[in-house]
Amino acid sequence: MKIPEENLIHIPVKKGSLEGDLQIPSGAKGLVVFAHGSGSSRHSPRNRFVAEFLQKGGVATLLIDLLTKEEGEEDESTAALRFDIDLLTERLCLVTEWLQTTKEAQQMPIGYFGASTGAAAALCAAAKIKKGVAAVVSRGGRPDLAHRALADVKAPTLLIVGGHDGAVIGMNEEAYALLKCEKEMVIVPRATHLFEERGALENVARLALEWFCKHFKRY
């Protein structure tokens, strides 16, 4: 499938705007919003790899910075905002509402792909929006940071963790037990936290595509 060019979008917030890269393949089955992990951005090579894989599978993607440019610069110096799950959740909800009003995306089911702290924001946003999110995928996520919201998540949720990411496996197992929605947890053998091992990230992308396509059809 031919992938369309990225469209740079700006979503206004107080004291600035959020920048994102939106790509919508022809006949897209749904749209996945990427919530990046601590200290990362929409330029994350790992999330861009997964996004391109999804696009080739006929899924639209939005790689979005949940911090403004100024906030991002502050966070690089202080690391004060990357763990502010309430702020990241609020921004992700705002992005979702914006998408639901746009001509290109308003008719498509929406999913979230969260990495690290972005996974916590994705789960919290899914719990708040309830009927507006079709599916959630977490890659090496920190769902423990969404502890209070987990029981309220209705969207089918897939937790993907590296087999050599011991501490995060435990966090995900605890979160998995608290989720009451349709759920699945997959441990990728021999993969570490960033899934840098040969074939590991391809495995993540394939699992994500299958999960989103399955639940976009139902939505």
Description of the molecule:
This protein is globular. The chain has one domain (7-218): Alpha/Beta hydrolase fold, catalytic domain (Rossmann fold). The chain has 219 residues and is α/β, with parallel strands linked by helices. The chain has six helices and eight strands, in the order βββαβααβαββαβα.
Short descriptors:
single chain, 219 residues, alpha/beta, Rossmann fold, eight-stranded mixed β-sheet, 6 helices, 8 strands
The number of distinct helices, counting runs of at least 4 residues, comes to 6
CATH superfamily: Alpha/Beta hydrolase fold, catalytic domain
Q: What is Rg?
A: 16 Å
Poorly predicted runs are: none
User: Share of helix among residues?
Assistant: 25-40%
Give me the strand/helix succession: EEEHEHHEHEEHEH
Give me the secondary-structure topology:
Blueprint: E1 7-13, E2 16-23, E3 31-35, H1 45-56, E4 60-64, H2 69-78, H3 85-99, E5 110-115, H4 117-129, E6 135-139, E7 157-162, H5 166-178, E8 183-188, H6 200-218
Summarize the structure.
This protein is an alpha/beta fold. It has helices at 45-56, 69-78, 85-99, 117-129, 166-178, 200-218; strands at 7-13, 16-23, 31-35, 60-64, 110-115, 135-139, 157-162, 183-188. α5 (166-178) links the parallel β7 (157-162) and β8 (183-188).
